[in-house]
Specification:
The structure holds two protein chains of two kinds. Chain A is α/β, with parallel strands linked by helices. Chain A folds into three domains: 2-42, no CATH class; 51-117 and 293-434, Rossmann fold; 120-288, 3-Layer(aba) Sandwich (Dimethylsulfoxide Reductase, domain 2). The radius of gyration of chain A is 23 Å and the shape is globular. Chain B is an alpha/beta fold. Chain B has two domains: 3-51 and 450-505, Urease, subunit C, domain 1; 53-449, TIM Barrel, CATH 3.20.20.140. In chain B, strands 6, 7, 8, 9, 10, 11, 14, 18, 23 and 24 form a ten-stranded parallel beta sheet that branches. In chain B, a hairpin with a 4-residue loop joins strand 1 and strand 2. In chain B, helix 5 (149-156) packs antiparallel against helix 6 and helix 6 packs across helix 8. Chain B is globular and about 65 Å long. The chains are: A alpha/beta, B alpha/beta. Chains A and B meet through helix 4, helix 5, strand 8, helix 6 and helix 15 of A and helix 1, helix 3, helix 4, helix 11 and strand 16 of B.
Chain lengths: 435, 565
């Protein structure tokens, strides 16, 4: 029997498109409409890729174990660890993330999300100078100038342009696409630079200089700007400032192309202060292109529970935050951690080599429905229901809008990570209270 | 069955006309009852001041912008951290504490009910998620309509019924409590970087004025018979000379409701400024108070400023940008499509600053010059004027002329040229304070029938016992003892359970969320309106089918029914 489910929320990236149509046949996903390639792949390849149940390292191979035994192992490991790290979280629902934050507090561990290897620097900049932003619908209805800086939406967030920016329907334009202009700033040509009305090619590492030059021009000090700044000719810089000033509503989006290059958070601070300054002339906003579907949710939840968006260290009994010290990458690089719980993420594929080596040396538990690079580093992997397919929960879109994902597959037999983590939390807490 | 008997309580319960009697309060299963059995638990209140649980009718504690205030301020998180103690989780933050930090500190001060002042409908789930993590208080969310396009269309058509249909549907969809208008029209104008400066100015791109928005919304609110009135943050917040806008705003409604006010004006201190610039700013609190004194259908809250550091946060995006251009401090902004805006910046209120001193004096002047305490409630617009932990000091200032005069000596020396605070000798009583911190709130919010804010039979047993004996103290002289008493209860009781004892939260409990559920007849069903539906298919960035807040977010929700008449 085939079935169509509408208005499904895609759990892949921070766009959280909520207009997906999924076709089901006998409890399997057979078709997907409206999603981009990345999202469609997430749905269509889901069932064939999942682990059947928990697997435990056994000599040089693996053995199947029960969920009960797996949970016993986790409870025992986390109860005894001196410096446990709880990392990932960006594919989990906020309900799971909340339990994670409380679990970290209970065991005196460190909780951190994938933020620390993507937009962590953006948050550091925001903590210095704030964040003039808006929801994506505000951009869609009003923006006549859009800047993508160090991001390649066509490949990384394929529907960002059609749902929220250049190609989206707009209240304040008759023919939005023709009335908008798109400026793309990058160090190389990408598919996204092809659609730009203005492409700014910056020499690698030159973003800070270019932003500084734009700010100087905006403040009437073009005289101090050299003829070429990081490969960009001064007339183009002047032209961009003029475009930005004449705009009715401008929106800048930035990606890891400037958060993770030289200058890091100072690049973002410079971009934010450029936007602050533009607001003295007209309306401008700036927003990070968040990657994972619910990475922003992890920042939100950790903040209302602990006070800090990521890299929270509970080892002193209070919430302590010092990125560079309490970020999981740094803790692993220093070889400090003695146990790791990795939730729905793949540090093995993204961390520096030294961190992966140290992760492989300590007992590492991976909660992930699918095998990944991190599988090869871990001691125990526990598959759980996928948020947005066979589990429902809250996810925060890249602009902060909370959306509830749908559970449209029943009877897959997988427990949710919320249930499993709650069991772990309750058992450790009970043991502590009875100790 | 759980029974509790509080004996020898010095009760002030203005809703029930009890003004300082020594009496017993029997409680069964969370409600005040006629009597309990001999096996009940006992608390001897020893003649200490006993009030219904505190209610904050305007505070910012949960939701998108509150959390962004935390997110952008690790320096503030470090300023207020505590480690786990008993059932209490660790907390962080001083001006914008974590949810548990807010909840424990309010509980310690005897508060059992909080109204979050501003929830954007599109981001309602966030507010409800944080409500669930604010366990010691029952929660309510005022819902923002100041830039709502569907409401604007109804206002443009002068169609009160359609406005009510939009508001009713939205409150039910997002599990909101009351209607909040923040700088009506101004937040929409801010979408393109503009603002509104007068009640009769046309909102850009919309052929309507703030006055029309306010008037239509008030009529729609009364048509829906919502428990609370329209809750208004006036236009021109924080602008010298804005008292005229505030006075004009108060002229808009007539008296339309027998049980409560018709219009609630919030943080009026920020709206009572005379002069033309920051250089000649002066208090016009006397004119505002005189107007309130003539209008029994209006209730205000103070929005008191206290000196020190705090965080300003409001849906009023353009106002926050103006503050940014003054302070050059870090600035965040977050416009919400088709609905509203918001902004945040940290500020420091300095007693050496004449402007800040005038602001401080105005809040007190309002409370002392509004004759009827039911019409002027105690708030700081937490954390905008000050963090709520400053409430006890405000109580001290209102109860003691001596304390005010002492403070007046330490503020800017020109204060007496710009305000008349030093000439006001009124000292408020414990009864006045009870009204301004709980009884007035339950009446203004329409929660008396929900058993909130009073101790009559069948009321919810939310009770605060403070370490002060009103007959044995002269607050005028012993204001420091009064302040200490209101900082920390002997007992805070919620639903008949002792939740806080001598400043320590002793029990983990689950709270509830009150939301409004007006029953809408078929001819007020917005789902029949293609114009309404089109907003979602074309202009919102979220599908209509994914907009409404699911029941999972209000597991312990209490729907307050109302009928269109």
């Amino acid at each position: 029997m085939s079935d169509k489910v509408r208005h499904v929320v895609c759990p892949y990236c921070g766009c959280l498109c909520d207009d997906i149509l999924v076709e089901l046949d006998e409890g399997k996903i057979t078709g997907v409409e409206n999603a981009c390639t990345l999202g469609a792949h997430k749905f269509l390849s889901d069932s064939e890729n999942r682990l059947k149940g928990p697997i435990m390292r056994d000599g040089s191979g693996w053995k199947d174990i029960s969920y009960e035994d797996a949970i016993d192992y986790v409870v025992d490991l986390l109860s005894k660890a001196d410096r446990p790290i709880l990392y990932g979280w960006s594919g989990c629902a906020t309900e799971t993330q909340a339990i994670g934050a409380h679990l970290a507090e209970l065991i005196g561990g460190v909780i951190d999300s994938t933020t620390s290897v993507c937009h962590g620097p953006s948050i550091l900049a925001i903590q210095e100078v704030g964040h003039p932003g808006c929801t994506l619908g505000q951009v869609k209805n009003r923006a006549d100038t859009i800047i993508y800086w160090g991001s390649n939406p066509i490949e990384a967030h394929p529907r960002h342009l059609s749902r929220y920016t250049n190609y989206a329907d707009a209240y304040f334009f008759h023919n939005a696409f023709r009335e908008r202009q798109v400026i793309v700033v990058d160090t190389r040509k990408t598919p996204s630079t092809e659609i730009a009305t203005e492409f700014v090619l910056v020499k690698p590492g030159g973003d800070y200089h270019v932003l500084s030059a734009l700010r100087a021009i905006l403040r009437g000090r073009a005289d101090v700007v050299p003829d070429i700044v990081a490969g960009v000719a001064k007339p183009q810089l002047i032209r961009i400032v003029e475009i930005c000033k004449k705009t009715n509503f401008g929106a800048m989006f930035f990606g890891v192309g400037i958060t993770m290059t030289g200058g890091k958070y100072k690049n973002i601070r410079n971009a934010i202060e450029f936007v602050d300054e533009l607001n003295r002339y007209t309306k401008w906003t700036i927003s990070p292109m968040r990657g994972h579907s619910n990475v922003y949710g992890s920042n939100e939840v950790f903040t209302w529970i602990s006070g800090y968006p990521y890299a929270v260290d509970y080892s002193r009994g209070i919430a302590f935050y010092n990125p560079g010290e309490t970020t999981v990458v740094d803790i692993l690089a220093r070889g400090e951690a003695d146990a790791a719980l990795i939730m729905a993420s793949d540090p093995g594929a993204h961390f520096p080599r030294i961190c992966s080596e140290n992760l492989a040396k300590i007992p590492t538990i991976l909660f992930d429905p699918y095998p990944s690079v991190t599988t090869h580093l871990c001691t125990l992997q526990i598959p759980s229901a996928v948020n947005g397919i066979d589990a429902a929960g809250t996810a925060y879109r890249m602009d902060g809008i909370p959306i509830r994902t749908h559970k449209f597959l029943d009877n897959t037999g997988y427990p949710t990570d919320t249930t499993l983590l709650k069991q772990i939390y309750d058992r450790i807490r009970e043991a502590k209270e009875n100790a | 069955m759980h029974e509790l008997l509080i004996r020898n309580a010095y009760v002030i319960d203005p809703i029930n006309g009890i003004l300082g009697e020594i009496m017993d309060i029997p409680i069964r299963d969370g409600r005040v009852v006629d009597k309990v059995s001999e096996k009940s638990d006992l608390i001897d209140a020893l003649g200490y001041l006993t009030l219904p649980g505190g209610i904050d009718s305007h505070t910012h504690v949960c939701g998108t912008k509150v959390n962004f205030g935390r997110y952008m301020s690790p320096e503030d998180m470090r300023a207020g951290r505590t480690s786990r103690r008993g059932v209490m989780y660790p907390t962080s933050g001083y001006t914008v504490p974590t949810t548990f930090g807010n909840s424990y500190r309010y509980s310690r001060m005897g508060y059992t009910t909080l109204l979050e002042g501003a929830m954007a409908p599109l981001e309602a789930r966030h507010t409800h998620e944080e409500f669930a993590a604010t366990p010691m208080q029952d929660m309510l969310a005022n819902t923002l309509f100041d830039g709502n396009w569907s409401l604007f269309e109804a206002v443009g058509d002068n169609d009160v019924k359609q406005a009510a249909a939009v508001i009713g549907w939205t409150l039910k969809a997002v599990k909101g409590f009351g209607i909040k208008l923040t700088n009506p029209g101004g937040t929409e104008a801010w979408g393109f970087g503009d603002d509104i400066s007068g009640l009769d100015e046309t909102v850009p791109n919309w052929d309507i004025t703030p006055k029309q928005i306010i008037d239509t919304t008030i009529r729609a609110c009364e048509l829906l018979h919502l428990p609370h009135s329209v809750h208004l943050h006036c236009n021109n917040l924080g602008m010298p000379g804005n008292y005229k806008t505030t006075l004009d705003t108060m002229e808009i409604p007539s008296d339309m409701n027998r049980d409560r006010q018709t219009l609630y004006l919030t943080h009026v201190q920020f709206h009572s400024y005379g002069g033309h610039t920051w250089g000649d700013i002066r208090s016009e609190a006397d004119k505002i108070a005189a107007s309130v004194n003539n209008k029994p259908h209006i209730v205000i809250d103070m929005g008191q400023v206290m000196f020190g550091r705090t965080m300003t946060m409001t849906a009023d995006g353009p106002m926050e940008f103006r503050l940014y251009t003054l302070h050059h401090n870090k600035w965040s902004n977050h416009d919400v499509e088709l609905e509203t805006g918001s902004g945040i910046i940290p500020v420091y209120y300095n007693r050496q600053s004449l402007v800040n001193s005038v602001m401080w004096a105005i809040g007190l002047e309002l409370a002392l010059m509004v004759k009827n305490p039911w019409q002027c409630l105690l708030t700081t617009d937490n954390p905008n004027g000050a963090p709520f932990v400053k409430y006890p000091e405000i109580i001290g200032l209102l109860m003691s002329n001596r304390y005010r005069n002492k403070e007046l000596e330490s503020v800017h020396r020109h204060i007496n040229k710009r305000t008349i605070l030093s000439s006001l000798e009124r000292e408020l009583s414990f009864e006045d304070i009870a009204i301004m911190t709980r009884s007035g709130q339950t009446k203004a919010l329409g929660l008396i029938n929900e058993g909130k804010g009073h101790l009559g039979e069948d009321a919810r047993a939310d009770i605060a016992i403070f370490p002060v004996k009103p007959d044995d103290i002269d607050p005028s002289k012993q204001y420091e003892e009064v302040i200490g008493a209101f900082q920390q209860t002997l007992y805070t009781i919620k639903d008949g359970i002792v939740v806080s004892r001598n400043g320590e939260v002793v029990t983990g409990i689950l709270n509830r969320t009150f939301w409004s559920k007006p029953d809408l007849p078929d001819d007020m069903d917005v789902m029949q309106s293609s114009r309404f539906i089109e907003k979602f298919s074309r202009f919102y960035s979220v599908d209509l089918e994914n907009y409404a807040v699911q029941d999972e977010y209000v597991e312990r929700g209490v729907a307050i029914d109302s009928k269109v008449v």
